[in-house]
Design goal:
There is one protein chain. The protein is α/β, with parallel strands linked by helices. It is 33% helix and 18% strand. The protein contains 16 helices and 21 strands. It has a 7-stranded parallel sheet with strand order 3-2-1-4-5-6-11, sandwiched between helices. Helix 2 packs across helix 7, helix 4 packs parallel to helix 5 and helix 12 crosses helix 16. This is SDR family oxidoreductase. It holds the Pfam family DUF2867.
């Protein structure tokens, strides 16, 4: 592997914003794995007798990207999720078998692995509190035992690269232990050990990107001088897919990394060059501990402190591959592995083109509230505060829905911007995500997408967006945004009972303006603190939620007029 140095190569970097190489995104990784993977059938889909692979962590960053790559490679896929309904809307949902299973529950995971040839273990509790090591250990043990009992042919696990003989950070030590548990299962196991993963939406890439873009000058800890061997997410996916075909006598760990070995300082300077930014002034100081560094990272980047700390602690070690034995089983692609510069350009192209398929915030964080919505039939009762507002909008349902689905992120919340910024800052101070998580896609949402300090809990396209609060509050909170017919006796299509009182439903009545924008904020307080919180913020609801309703309606009406000016009839919806 080459020990590339930024100062020697920056002059060779391409002009900002220009990638002279073809975009790799449309091409499945299996394209260069001929002979290793079964390949799709004549209809472009996996054959009925193709090997069956089970994938855990499908709502996560890597798992969500691995599923379509496995399908393209000709494998049948069984997606395992605690809440399968949250996978609806994924582009591959109809092409896989979706099974409800919690990897920590022996009976559930044993049944889910029945008949499986290869099982991908992509679970870890990164940034999930002080008990993550015990939780990771128990879940890995349950999974290993279930895989052995079900007769699984191979386990594939993505772990972390670490130096031998050093005391590891808690996060890196836990990931190492998980790999050892799986290797001891009796099932042939492939453990892939990677350092920094470079790809649009990865936590490591986002941390580096925001640090470099937002700080033209910075003081940094000593670990920025440690050597790192980053790897492009596309190469990670290629190794994961290729590992499914390893022979039964191979059961071991493999180091995986890209062709460049860089310090974190060099990575930031290279990123600045590729992104068209001036060279950064980076001053190294000896006093920043990993804890202080993670707090600094959480203030500057969207990555919260609970996630930043294990990432920073991992960077305290030099993480460089000791071997490249993986090439004996998954050969390097004809053009070689993707270097740092190209990986960054490809990631930036996806970010700028709003085509980030998965993101570090995609996975539901362990410990996130999962109580039922207070209006659900099974709710146990208790205090419930509701702020409900409705307004008639002179726009088609489609125009209003486009505005509703695009709330948050760079577009903001269509009301008192300063109040939202202050609330986001206060949330970050007390350890919440704040507003810096933004959105995965500026216009489209999926269930479980993070939207600033909210998460999409339910999505009915064209009808309903329900957001669950993940900010730090003494209770549970939701925000519902609905598009409803102006005529109370008329329901939109595809809804049970979609007919008015006098006869069949009239589709034109739903496509044409006006329409109702219904907005509902719900809060279930916990104790006296929750009661005090509600009444403390209640005086601001008129400004925040009232302003939001007026401005969303105004934006939809403006969009409707623009469509009319372009000659698009309002009845087209």
């Amino acid at each position: 592997m080459s020990d590339a140095r930024a100062d020697a190569t920056l002059g060779d970097a391409p002009e900002p914003g220009r990638d002279p190489e073809p975009d790799l995104a449309p091409e499945p990784v299996a394209h260069t794995l001929g002979g290793l993977v079964p390949g799709p059938g004549p209809d472009g889909r996996p054959a009925a007798d193709a090997p069956l692979v089970a994938v855990t962590g499908v709502t996560g960053y890597v798992g969500g990207r691995l599923v379509p790559e496995l399908l393209a490679a000709g494998y049948r896929v069984r997606a395992l999720a605690r809440h399968p309904e949250r996978l609806r809307g994924r582009p591959w949902y109809d092409d896989v078998e979706v099974v409800a299973a919690d990897a920590a529950e022996p009976e559930q995971i044993r049944a889910a692995l029945d008949g499986v040839d290869v099982a991908y273990y992509l679970i870890h509790s990164l940034g999930s509190g002080r008990t993550f090591e015990e939780r990771d250990r128990r879940t890995a043990q349950v999974f290993a035992q279930a895989a052995a009992a079900a007769g699984v042919g191979r386990i594939v696990y993505l772990g972390g690269l670490y130096p031998e003989g050093e005391k590891l950070s808690p996060h890196l030590a836990s990931r190492t232990e998980v790999g050892e548990i799986l290797l001891a299962s009796g099932v042939p196991t492939t453990v892939l050990r990677a350092a920094v993963v470079l790809g649009s939406g990865s936590a490591s890439f986002e941390m580096m990107r925001y640090l470099t873009e937002r700080l033209p000058a910075m003081t940094v800890p000593r670990w920025v001088a440690n050597r790192i061997q980053p790897i492009a997410v596309r190469d990670v996916l290629r190794y994961l897919v290729g590992s499914a075909a390893m022979p039964p006598d191979v059961s071991r760990a493999f180091d995986i990394g890209g062709p460049d070995v860089l310090t974190y300082r060099e990575m930031m300077q290279r990123y600045a060059r590729i992104a068209g930014l001036p060279r950064r002034l980076i001053v190294q100081v000896p006093v920043l501990t990993p804890r202080l560094s993670s707090l600094w990272v959480s203030l500057v980047t969207p990555v919260p402190g609970g996630l930043a700390r294990p990432l920073v602690e991992s960077l305290v070690h030099e993480v460089v591959c000791d071997e490249h034995d993986i090439a004996a089983h998954v050969p390097d692609p004809p053009g070689g592995l993707i270097g740092f510069d190209r990986a960054v350009r490809l990631a930036l192209a996806r970010v700028q083109g709003a085509s980030v398929t998965t993101r570090w915030s995609s996975a539901l964080p362990p410990g996130a509230p999962s109580d039922p919505l207070p209006s659900d039939p099974g709710w146990a009762g208790g205090s419930l505060y509701v702020d409900e507002r409705r307004v008639l909008v002179d726009a088609s349902p489609a125009a209003l829905w486009r505005v509703v689905e695009a709330v948050g992120g760079e577009r903001g919340w269509y009301s008192w911007a300063l109040a939202w910024r202050v609330r986001g800052l206060l949330d970050r101070v007390v350890g919440g995500p704040g507003l810096r998580r933004g959105r995965r896609d500026p216009a489209r949402l999926l269930v479980d997408d993070a939207v600033d300090f909210w998460r999409v809990e339910q999505l009915v396209p064209g009808r309903l967006l329900r957001l669950r609060a993940e900010m730090r509050v003494p209770g549970l909170a939701w925000l519902e945004l609905r598009v409803e017919p102006a005529d109370a006796g008329t329901d939109p299509p595809d809804v049970p009972g979609a007919r008015d009182a006098d006869g069949p439903w009239d589709p034109d009545a739903w496509r044409r303006p006006p329409v109702v924008f219904a907005q509902r904020a719900l809060f279930h307080p916990h104790g006296l603190a929750g009661q005090l919180y509600w009444w403390a913020v209640y005086p601001f609801h008129g400004v925040v939620f009232g302003g939001m309703q007026r401005n969303v309606a105004r934006a939809a009406q403006t969009a409707e007029r623009a469509r009319a000016d372009r000659g698009v009839t309002r009845a087209d919806g």
